[in-house]
């Protein structure tokens, strides 16, 4: 090991050992204060084994009741760490999975404490159940499970770039890649003290994603929830209510892709000029464009205020990424550190800006057709028809607006950047796409209706999202024992759906799964997949992405306008390095040579 690696190991021991232990102790004491009967049972056992004398290490291992209590405390209040990104949308920021619970879910968990304490901890229960059914994984290491390995895989994966190839699993989804390499497709890992089972059977995936009232999303880090809550993080009735209110707004809004994309192209024109090709890192420009689109579409006439809100969100996301890089300590966000104060300040500033816009709208006599206007309209219609309980509060509308920003921006810019990179490598497909675009629109302004009839561009976008899906995995969890045919998975387990692995699976797609072949989608998605759940970049079932059509339309408009004006190829300085930071991004940007047509 290098000195750096030794230091990293020490840091892991510090975090995994010190913070998780103190968190475990504090929750155990709280639970035992609440459940005096178990406190008495534990004391009886301790007094029986040690009397009032000094406990011997050997005998500590024989405390059965104490071990049961510690495992149950860990199950209810796990203190895991910076493990996985499972949701493509920033609101979840589930980098810090297996962390503390929200107040509401804590109250629910309290209720089951007594009933579940009969089991000797989740590890003891989980392992025989799933290994008996062919799932394999590492044996459980107390408190931090596979945390150390996961950290190492993640760091090693992105430490060097790769040759240009679409075989990106080792880099983009290193944890699943390594686990499945070692244990096979039916495998599991320990997210701290929580077991996480990898699900790769298309039928099981269909069932999990269809039954959204049975399989919930895993609880995220409460710090991350400061960023945005909204429909993507709600469950059951609250989720259904919000989805019903937001849906009409998405169907009626008029997106402003043309304006924002035009702004981006004007910037490229200034850099490239008329003579020869010029190198441009297109990645930051695509990010600005998609963020501009969402500011205009969400806040329309209040575009300037909208931009300010989103700038604050960007700042907040950076703080949150830093916060989630360390283990989450329950209650830590309430401590008035400088960092926490800054984050709270941003929340306050954002809310007052959004509230200002909303108040202005409420007083206006005419309705506006931006997302916020439509949302307010659909909300007040619902409240008029079914009473005020059925609508959203102003705070909830604010949260949904914040969510649109995170949901709508990074994901779509990722789709665009990988499409441009792939078309730079495959100039034959770039030419075919341009031919189609020029045939349908010439050099004129694309209209929305006809964007939907572009066949080649559509095939290319799907193939780009198959190989480089913005969200590389989805997560769900079991609240009670779940049965899938002969397979049974106990309660309290995370289900990891490695979306990227499904998109690259040679058993499903053939030996050429890693090759860019848009012709796979020449007869549509259902023909390409034969109706199986093996391609689902926007998720599946009732919780499928609300912005799916929006994103596809935006990507088509942008690709049409780019293809009309430019030809592009990889620059010699382009470095292929796909990397997952919540979503799948080009780690070193996208340096392309742009030539004006
Ligand atoms: C290429 C772009 C996009 C991709 C790949 C994508 C992907 C996804 C995926 C995979 C989910 C499901 C997550 C899960 O089931 O755990 C989802 C949900 C969602 N997406 Fe997107 N998304 C994109 C763009 C957008 C845009 C532009 C918006 C809005 C402006 C949006 C809003 C949402 C919302 C609100 C949900 C939550 C739906 C619910 O829980 O009912 N997405 N997205």
UniProtKB/TrEMBL annotation:
Q: Which UniProt keywords apply?
A: Heme, Iron, Membrane, Metal-binding, Monooxygenase, Oxidoreductase, Transmembrane, Transmembrane helix
**List of residues binding heme:** 545
For activity, the cofactor(s) needed are: heme
Keyword Heme part of the UniProt annotation: yes
Q: Which Pfam families match?
A: p450
PROSITE patterns assigned to the protein according to its UniProt record, in alphabetical order: CYTOCHROME_P450
Q: Which GO terms describe its molecular function?
A: heme binding; iron ion binding; oxidoreductase activity, acting on paired donors, with incorporation or reduction of molecular oxygen, reduced flavin or flavoprotein as one donor, and incorporation of one atom of oxygen
UniProt-listed InterPro entries: Cyt_P450 (IPR001128), Cyt_P450_CS (IPR017972), Cyt_P450_E_grp-I (IPR002401), Cyt_P450_sf (IPR036396), Cytochrome_P450_Monooxygen (IPR050665)
- Gene Ontology BP annotations: alkaloid metabolic process; response to jasmonic acid; terpenoid biosynthetic process
Question: Under what name is this protein listed?
Answer: Cytochrome P450, family 72, subfamily C, polypeptide 1
């Amino acid at each position: 090991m290098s000195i750096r690696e030794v230091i990293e190991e020490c840091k892991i021991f510090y975090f995994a050992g010190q913070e998780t232990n103190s968190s475990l102790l504090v929750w155990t004491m709280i639970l035992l204060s609440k459940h005096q009967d178990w406190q008495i049972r534990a004391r009886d056992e301790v007094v029986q084994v040690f009397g009032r004398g000094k406990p011997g290490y050997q005998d500590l291992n024989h405390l059965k009741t104490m071990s049961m209590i510690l495992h149950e405390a860990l199950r209810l209040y796990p203190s895991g760490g910076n493990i996985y990104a499972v949701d493509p949308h920033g609101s979840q920021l589930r980098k810090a999975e297996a962390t503390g619970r929200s107040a509401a879910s804590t109250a629910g968990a309290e209720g089951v404490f007594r009933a579940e304490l009969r089991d000797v901890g989740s590890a003891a229960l989980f392992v025989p159940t799933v290994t008996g059914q062919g799932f394999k994984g590492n044996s459980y290491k107390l408190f931090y499970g596979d945390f150390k390995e996961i950290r190492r895989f993640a760091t090693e994966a992105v430490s060097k770039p790769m040759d240009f190839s679409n075989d990106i699993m080792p880099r983009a989804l290193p944890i699943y890649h390594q686990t499945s390499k070692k244990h096979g497709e039916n495998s599991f890992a320990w997210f701290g003290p929580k077991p996480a089972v990898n699900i790769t059977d298309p039928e099981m995936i269909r069932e999990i994603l269809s039954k959204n009232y049975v399989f919930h999303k895993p609880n995220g880090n409460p710090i991350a929830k400061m960023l945005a809550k909204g429909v993507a993080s709600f469950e059951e009735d609250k989720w259904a209510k919000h989805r019903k209110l937001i849906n009409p707004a998405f169907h009626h809004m008029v997106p402003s892709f043309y304006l924002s994309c035009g702004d981006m192209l004007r910037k490229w024109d200034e850099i490239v000029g008329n003579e020869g090709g010029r190198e441009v890192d297109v990645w930051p420009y695509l990010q600005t464009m998609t963020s501009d689109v969402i500011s205009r579409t969400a806040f329309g006439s209040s575009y300037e205020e909208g931009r300010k809100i989103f700038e604050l969100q960007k700042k907040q996301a950076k703080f949150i990424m830093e916060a989630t890089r360390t283990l989450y300590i329950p209650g830590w966000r309430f401590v008035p550190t400088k960092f926490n104060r800054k984050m709270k300040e941003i929340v306050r500033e954002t809310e007052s800006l959004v509230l200002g816009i909303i108040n202005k709208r409420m007083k206006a006599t005419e309705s506006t057709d931006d997302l916020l206007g439509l949302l307010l309209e659909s909300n007040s219609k619902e409240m008029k028809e079914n009473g005020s309980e059925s609508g959203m509060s102003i705070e909830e509308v604010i949260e949904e607006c914040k969510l649109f920003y995170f949901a709508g921006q990074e994901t779509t810019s990722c789709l665009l950047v990988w499409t441009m990179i792939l078309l730079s490598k495959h100039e034959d497909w770039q030419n075919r796409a341009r031919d189609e675009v020029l045939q349908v629109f010439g050099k004129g302004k694309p209209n929305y209706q006809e964007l939907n009839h572009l066949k080649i561009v559509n095939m290319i976008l799907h193939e780009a999202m198959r190989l480089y899906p913005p969200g590389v995995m989805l997560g769900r969890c079991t609240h009670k024992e779940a049965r899938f045919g002969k397979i049974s998975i106990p309660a309290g387990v995370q289900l990891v759906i490695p979306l990227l692995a499904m998109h690259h699976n040679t058993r499903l797609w053939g030996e050429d799964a890693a090759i860019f072949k848009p012709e796979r989608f020449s007869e549509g998605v259902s023909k390409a997949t034969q109706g199986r759940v093996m391609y689902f970049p926007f998720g599946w079932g009732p919780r499928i992405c609300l912005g799916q059509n929006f994103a596809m339309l935006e990507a088509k408009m942008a690709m049409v306008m780019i293809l009309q004006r430019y030809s592009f190829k990889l620059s010699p300085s382009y470095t292929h390095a796909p990397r997952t930071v919540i979503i799948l991004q080009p780690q070193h940007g996208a340096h392309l040579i742009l030539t004006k047509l």
